[in-house]
Amino acid sequence: YEEFSPLVNDFVDMPGRNVMLLAYGQTGTGKTHTIFGAKEAALNQSAEQEWGIFPKVVKHTLTQMAARGNKFKLYI
Q1: How far is CA 75 from CA 6, 20, 45, 56, 72, in A?
Q2: Which of 15, 3, 28 lies closest to 64 in space, CA to CA?
Q3: How many CB atoms lie within 10 A of CB 26?
Q4: What is the 3-state secondary structure (H, E, C) of 51-73?
Q5: How far apart are CA 12 and CA 22, in angstroms?
Q6: Is residue 42 pLDDT above 70, yes or no?
Q7: Which are the contacts of 39, defined by CB distance < 8 A and separation ≥ 6?
Q8: CB count, 10 Å around CB of 73?
Q9: Is 18 in contact with 76 (CB distance < 8 Å)?
């Protein structure tokens, strides 16, 4: 996830920018697990270390935007 963190900050600093997160590869290579994390972790806020990239990016984005006092709309 640390590789995506600077990209999240760039996105937050440039209003109006669109971003897409894409996982591409062969079936069964772990894309869903990488993006979303362990199934149980999605249901448990305290299991954040087991979250995938997507939940971490969303949390980081909302936290950074709120810290800057930005108003925002998020479409998923």
Answers
A1: 21, 12, 21, 16, 10
A2: 15
A3: 7
A4: ECHHHHHHHHHHHHHHHCCCCCC
A5: 19
A6: no
A7: none
A8: 4
A9: no
